[in-house]
Design a protein that fits this description.
Layout: H1 10-24, H2 26-32, H3 37-58, H4 63-78, H5 86-98, H6 102-117, H7 124-145, H8 151-171, H9 173-178, H10 186-191, H11 196-201, H12 207-231, H13 236-258, H14 272-281, H15 306-316, H16 332-364
Helix pairs in contact: 1-3, 1-5, 2-13, 3-4, 3-5, 3-6, 3-7, 4-5, 4-6, 6-7, 7-8, 7-15, 8-12, 8-13, 8-15, 12-13, 13-14
Amino acid sequence: MILNYGFSGEVEDGKACSAAIRRGSKSFHLASLMLPSPTRQAARALYAFCRHSDDLIDAPRSGLPALERLRQRLDQIYAGDPAPFACDRAFARAVEEHGIPKPVVEALLDGFAMDLEGRRYQTLDELKSYATCVAASVGLMMAAVMGVSDRSALARAADLGLAMQLTNIARDVGEDARNGRLYLPLDWLSQHGIDPDAFLGVPGFSPALGEVVKKLLHEADRHYRLGHAGIASLPPACQHAIRTAALVYEEIGTAIAANGYDSITHRARTTLARKLSLLVKARRPDCHLANGGQVSMQSPADPASARLVSLASAAAATIAPRASAEQIEGTAGRLTAILLRLQTQAREERDLRRLAAREKAASLA
């Protein structure tokens, strides 16, 4: 297939995708630094396209027309004629080089449609069907980028995506409520005597709501354990990066718990210093065992994500194995460089804050 990449080259598109991940998610940016170069470029292209799509849907007055445009752009990407956007061109390269299945990407857009409908979820299973669309799909896309084809490994990639999305939902309860959105299972709220409409009218924390958030994080933890079980089946040079991403996201749940499961008046955050310590911890394959023990790699896919896992597995079976550059490229030297780079970045950010404070003080004098 001959791809139409417009007037921008691969390097420029790659820089644009790198900037997108730096702005959008410091956690994923940190993890991506440890991926081998070919995988890192494709992963950032994937993230940039997903992030751009999410931002487009969230833009004021966008709605269903924006979603329809995204579906058209996805068709163009898979036809080898991407729209003139850096993320589309870069993602088209990733699709061509790594065989990312189109139905998996379409599931992401289906999740956006659920958001546009303002859909609420009666049960945990319904919520996980949504999380499959918006997050397990991304885990399966990443698996394709890393050349993973084993069905059990794909199921574990979906589990990791589910875990991260459930963590996101637990963290953003207050922010979502203030924007008129509610993702917590309605039957859980009912069991704890919480009226959804009253809560959205005046979002406030209560011990009952804390119990619901706690319950959601327990479910996330179960999926993290399943996700960790699959990391050993990834290409060796990719394992550290994925384990880092998992640990950093798990830490968000730990921060929520430390706040008494109050996601209304607090927004859980992970400091740069803590992320660096998790990056080092993630070098040990057994680092997750202290968080709940080991589970079977062969556990079946969650019912919510089983169909998408099957589609990804069938697509992977049609792709010939490729030489893995990432298995050749080591990570030890790169780890040291990353640590130094992040420490320098932290110092620069601290200096900028101090400078801004001095300038503000001078202007008030």
